[in-house]
Amino acid sequence: MRIITAAVCSALTLAALAAAPASAQDAPVRFIVPYPPGGAADQIARLVAQEMSKGGGATIIVENKPGAAGMIAADYVARAKPDGKTFFVGSNAPLVVNQALYAKMTYDPSKDFVPVSGMAKSPLLLVVRHDLPARDVKALIALGKQSPGKLTMGSAGTGNITYLAGEYAVSKLGFQVTHVPYQGSAPAIVGLMGSSTDMMFDALPSSMTQAQSGKIRPFAVLDDKRFAGLPDVPTAAELGYPGIDASAWFGLVAPAGTQTAVVDQMNRGVNQALAQPELQRKLTSIGAVAMPGDAQVFAAFVQAERDRWLPVARDLGLKAQ
C-alpha cells in the first residue's frame, strides 16, 4: 500500500509540474494601452491584436490603463514579469516626452523596457471647434494674437505629443494658448466638439471622422504631404508654415529582462500582421500607416524621437501641469 501511495503521489506531483508551464504558456498575451478606449493608441492596438490572433494565433487581450500621461500603464508593465505575456503599447509621451516634463518618474523609459516592434504612426491634424470665428490658419493666428492665452488648446494629456507638438506649433506660429489636458484623445475630441476648447493638434485616428463629418474643422496636416482621407486639407508647409510636422506613433515594448527569443517571436508576429493588406487598409481608413521593422529599427526610431523632442520641450520650458 505504501508503494502504491507513493507512486500515486509521485505521479500527481509530476503531473502538476508538467501542467504548470503548459498553463503559463496558454495564458493570453496582454497589450497594455496607456489611454482610454477610442483613441489612436487603442484603435491601432486592437487592429494589430485582432490580426495577430487570426488563424489560431496567440490570444491577445488589449487592456486600457489610462492616467498620468501614460505613466500608470508604463509603470505597471515595467514592474511586470518579463515572461512574454505583458507588453506595453508605448508612444511619444511615456517613452519620450515625459522625461522632459516630470522631475520624478517611477520608471526609466530607456532602461526598464526593451523595444519589440513599431506598430503604426499618424500625422497630427490641426483642428478647431466648428463655430470658431477663424476660418483658416491665418485667421486663427490673428485671433490668438488679439488676446494672448484666451484661445484654449485641448490635448490627449500633459506629455502627449498632442500637447508638446501643439505648444511647439503655436510658438512657431507666434501666438499663445491655454492648455486643457484630457485623459486621452477621444475625450479631448469630445470636448472640442462640445466647444469646451477652441483647438487641438490631434492624431488622425481620433479626429479624422469628426473632421470629415464637419463636427470639427480641419485647418492643416502636420506632415510633408496631404493625407488621402482629407485631400482638401493642406499641409502646414503648403500654407507657409514649414518645420512643424509631427506624428503620433505607437509600438510595443516589453519589461526589461525579457528574453531575446521572446522579443523576436513577438516582433515576427507584429510584422506579419502589419504586412497583411487588409490590416494596412484598416490602418489607412483611420488615418495611420504601418511601422514595420525589427526591434533594432524601432529602438533607433525611439532614440531619434528623443533626440528631436526632448530639447524642444526643454527649450519651451514645458512642465507637467
Automatic annotation (TrEMBL):
Keywords associated with the record: Lyase, Signal
Q: Which region is the signal sequence?
A: 1-24
Q: Does the keyword Lyase apply?
A: yes
The answer, when asked if Amino-acid biosynthesis is one of the entry's keywords, is no
Under the heading Pfam families, the entry gives:
TctC (PF03401)
Which molecular function terms from Gene Ontology are attached? Answer: lyase activity
Family of this protein = Belongs to the UPF0065 (bug) family.
Q: Which PANTHER family match?
A: BLR1237 PROTEIN (PTHR42928:SF5), TRICARBOXYLATE-BINDING PROTEIN (PTHR42928)
Q: Protein name, please? A: Argininosuccinate lyase
Organismal lineage: Bacteria, Pseudomonadati, Pseudomonadota, Betaproteobacteria, Burkholderiales
